[in-house]
Fold Protease Do-like PDZ domain-containing protein.
Amino acid sequence: MDKAVRKRGRKPKNAVDAEANPNSNTAVAEEVVASLNAAADTTKSDRRGSKRRRKTGKEKADDVAIVVSPERRASRHSDHNGDCDILTTVADGPPQWESVGKVVPSMDAVVKVFCVHTEPNFSLPWQRKRQYSSSSSGFIIGGRRVLTNAHSVEHHTQVKVKKRGSDTKYLATVLAIGTECDIAMLTVNDDEFWEGISPLEFGDLPALQDAVTVVGYPIGGDTISVTSGVVSRIEILSYVHGSTELLGLQIDAAINSGNSGGPAFNDKGECVGIAFQSLKHEDAENIGYVIPTPVIMHFIQDYEKNGEYTGFPILGVEWQKMENPDLRMSMGMGNEHKGVRIKRIEPTAPESNVLNPSDIILSFDGVNVANDGTVPFRHGERIGFSYLVSQKYTGDKALVKILRKSKIHEFNIKLATHKRLIPAHIGGQPPSYYIIAGFVFTAVSVPYLRSEYGKDYDFDAPVKLLDKHLHAMAQSIDEQLIVVSQVLVADINIGYEEIVNTQVVAFNNKPVRNLKSLADMVESCNEEFLKFDLEYDQIVVLRTKMAKEATRDILLTHCIPSAISSDLT
């Protein structure tokens, strides 16, 4: 803070100079700025004595970028959102106290989002967990729409929004949820909500060191909160909620629980991003992340173009850097060639028919790719070439130039979304399951692994499941990884009780492609025995007639409404 800053009501040391020239615009402006900065300092110092929730050892251990969860509410006080006034200056004279305006006029477009969540129970897929409430932030854009974070309204049963300074909560409808980019779009049917509100305007992608102001309703109070900082870094970030990598901004403004979905403004009052996650690490402080306008506009335009969110496409290849000169020479690359080597291609990707392993990607849509996989971004900056892919829409085509056996080829490739063998999310739908003779079969997903092994599932889950999660590729669009989740103990399954999270490879010597195919094969089986081939060469054999008869009693014992989830019937 500038040393010249003074508290209100006291003359600065250079007050004599200001009085000597009362018409000086510079003197007036400096005095106004000094008084505003002093007021800000006073506000900050007043809050330093407030109580803070003591961190537990578990929280201190967090060392990864985490999604800023919406604040869970217990009992809350009523909101009192007062407007903060500032002194404005007149160009040709001293400040006029009659000219009063709001600190940031765009703050009236920032709303508080209340959501009631009912999450599925992936370990007991026929049930749901106990509902809970959360609060987060959002903001109004054109077309009578509200943007917030996807994780703020995930598994929602009811969503309400409240304007700044209002005591009314309005029911909202979720129009679209973009899990990959962590953005959700809402609307409110009540016309009263939209009265007197001007939507926010989006600004350009900021540069490094540009000032940003994050506005929202974080934990620690009920009224609107403003924090400020600068853009520290612009690069491809890991979006924790969607398990994807997209363009992101790193800022040094505080982003806390409840800030999720709030806008980040530039110094012109334009929205340049959405707050969505922060870094919790013992060696890091005030590292927050913002979804930038290119990603936001992609989400909005995707919805407007298709009537729904279709996602961000991928190239569908794994690649290797070509920085080693011997490696480049062995692949037939001359000094004029730069690019990356294709290691593997997704079998479900459209380009699997035209690209081959060991092809060298030289350029994407006319932009040359460097040996480290980067492309020019802005003046003095480079970024991963996946940024170019993420700018496209599902179904778009891109011109890819490759080097194959010292010859250059060009292909127009249709881009599609990523099909993972173990998906990062299931689109907000309840998990699928099938039960026979107490054996609970289900499809593996990241939420399932998190439910079974906690947030550190990538360390605690079985090695084979982790290997498939990280490296396995789906061979077809409908392929799933099916496991025996657990065995509900009964007389018919004696000796099989300890089978847990074990992959099902085949049924009666027929490969298991997905959960529906397994359920269909079991239900239509007329053979004497049901034989399940599991991983590690383990088998389960049951008598068909007795297994189907025992299933009814097992369902009744455990109060399970159906042996098969509704999406499989």
User: Anything to note?
Assistant: The longest strand covers residues 225-239. Residues 1-64, 73-105 have pLDDT under 50 and may be disordered.
